[in-house]
Amino acid sequence: MLILKITGVEAIILNTGSKRKVSDALHTYDAGGCVVTKVFTDEGITGYATTGIGRVGATCDIVKVILEKELAPLLIGEDPFFSRKIRQKLWGSADYHGVEGVAQFAIAALDTCVWDIVGKALGKPTGLVVGAHRDRIPAYAMVGWYYETEKEYVDRCVEAVEEGFRALKLKVGKYSLEDDIRRIKQIQNEVGPNIRLMVDANQAFDEVEALTRGKAYEELGMYWYEEPMIPQHKESQARLSAKLSIPLAIGENYYTRYEFYDAVRTGAASIYQPDNRRAGGLTEWLDIAAITEAAGLKLASHGGGPANVNALCAIPNAIYLESGSLKNQDNSMYVTKLKMENGEILLPDTPGMGTEVSETFIAKYRIS
Ligand SMILES: [Mg+2]
């Protein structure tokens, strides 16, 4: 049986320019490098995926080379409806140098394109095609960065609540515990008790420090405590988890179902947060969802956008979409625009993954 045939792959590098400088405990972000992947078919249906890189340069170039030179020849001639066969084939080709790292960015992008094509071919959002659980997902705003000014931190959090978000995530761990407490209380005073707050330490602590700080976040009523330590220290994370009642959240830096499986078996956290680049696309997300659900655990996305909304709407144990502001979507790369009602982001009715990128946007920012 053959329904559609893949005829080509194109990877385009965009530089969307320098952004407002924001930091977490360990990293600073201010650049807009992105790879847009297109997969073409014999019926004229094109699948899209976007891979945010956060910097312009070698990483974007390597992802493009892997996509076009290594993986594309294996994909051409395949039927997008055979997504699990495609996943296995791409893995097989990448396992000599390793399927993690940027190779997984490329595999994940192709998986997203494949599912975009399937949804488009059937004329339905992919979240429905794979078996939906809901048509909307609660969203929290990732706005509590360390900015250049303290005023901006407060303003962005207040604006997100005014926009309709009912949960906000705050970065912690860059400075002292006293500074964390001050930052948390500042936002609690501004937004009131009905807005849920989560904290994210971005791997800043060792186990002792993570416990001391975790108790403080717990007392302040934080909803979850994200990435206290290096996520590869799974046993350490499990010991911490056992000593705290605040749920630990982890997973944005885990690659593929196997690392999630190890973390779940170790008892590393209660909430798992796959990232669309590292976790490996929708095919892999659905299996990660099954692994976490079978262990009685919850799942939230790392990152937002239409692809993640489609995935989370098909995942029964999903609790949150991470999102930036939905204002100014007229300038966003996606043709599909997201809508929020009562703090929840609606599954877009666009056929496919909602990942199609506007050609005007591509023309404006393309560098390669
Ligand atoms: Mg995080």
UniProtKB/TrEMBL annotation:
CDD domains: MR_like. GO terms for biological process: carbohydrate catabolic process. It holds the Pfam family MR_MLE_N. GO terms for molecular function: hydro-lyase activity; magnesium ion binding. It comes from Paenibacillus cremeus. The lineage of its organism: Bacteria, Bacillati, Bacillota, Bacilli, Bacillales. Gene3D superfamilies: Enolase-like C-terminal domain, Enolase-like, N-terminal domain. Its cofactor is Mg(2+). This is Mandelate racemase/muconate lactonizing enzyme family protein. Keywords: Magnesium, Metal-binding. Residues 150-247 form the Mandelate racemase/muconate lactonizing enzyme C-terminal domain. The keyword Membrane does not apply.
